[in-house]
Specification:
There is one protein chain. The protein is mainly α and 227 residues long. The protein has two domains: 2-36, no CATH class; 44-221, no CATH class. It has helices spanning 13-22, 27-36, 44-54, 60-65, 69-73, 77-87, 94-99, 117-123, 125-140, 148-153, 163-181, 188-209, 211-221. Helix 11 crosses helix 12 (188-209) and helix 12 (188-209) packs antiparallel against helix 13 (211-221). The longest helix has 22 residues, at 188-209. It starts with 12 loop residues before the first helix and ends in a 6-residue tail after the last helix.
Length: 227
């Protein structure tokens, strides 16, 4: 490809630099190192939006570490991917779609209020019923009931909410997300079915990985009664 560059173009200064680079033995490594040295820009705007939504001050280092939490909770690629997208606020709402010119309204598809992220996933009266049912499940397991901030983003420094609780919260948020995408009204029985499906998948994988992993599975899921 380089040889196809016109001779007169090679007279340009930057092409001379390219000549020097091409002739070096470690050319590929140099280019690779240049690419990975790109400065990482912290998504401060998204952090600020979450601070407003959940009324919680976020420390940048702790917030970035929290992205790892879901990996301790589940092996599900879909849930891990959704958790990442949710944390960076890359989820569909009518407020966002309206700004993009895709939706004709900012209203919630369920209740008619403005459909922001915090409204759809927490404040909407229809989805509140899902959270109330989830809190009952958590309470019956004698686990700490998470507050709004913990349901949305997981533990803070003072929180004692267990990983299984955050996993249940993530499953619920993913369920709300799927309902939004498919224009479905929330249904508690379907949510329970989703939780059971994740539990069954986790159990199968834990059994395959041996006694220690299965013991960890029982420790996490043993208290959860979904009947």
């Amino acid at each position: 490809m380089y040889l196809k560059i016109k001779i007169e173009w090679r007279l340009l200064n930057y092409v001379h630099q390219l000549d020097k680079l091409i002739n070096r033995d470690n050319c590929t490594k140099i280019i690779y190192n240049c690419l990975i040295l790109k400065e990482i820009i912290t998504p401060k705007k998204r952090m600020a939006d979450w601070e407003t939504d959940v009324n919680r001050e976020l420390d940048i280092d702790d917030w970035l570490d929290d992205f790892k939490t879901i990996y301790k909770c589940t092996t599900s690629t879909k849930l891990r991917n959704f958790d990442y997208r949710f944390r960076i606020r890359d989820v569909l709402t009518n407020t966002r779609l309206y700004k993009m010119g895709i939706s004709s309204t900012e209203q919630c598809y369920l209740c008619g209020d403005k459909e922001s992220i915090i409204h759809l996933y927490w404040e909407c009266e229809y989805n509140k019923r899902l959270w109330e049912r989830l809190k009952n499940i958590i309470s019956n397991a004698n686990l700490q009931i998470p507050n709004k901030s913990e349901c949305m983003l997981g533990r803070d420094e003072e929180s004692t909410v267990e990983d299984i609780v955050y996993l249940l919260c993530t499953i619920t948020k993913k369920f709300i997300h799927d309902g939004k995408c498919n224009k479905l009204k929330p249904n508690i029985n379907r949510l329970i079915s989703n939780i059971i499906s994740v539990k069954d998948s986790e159990e199968k994988l834990a059994r395959k990985k041996g006694k220690d992993k299965y013991r960890d599975f029982l420790k996490n899921w043993g208290k959860i009664n979904l009947i």
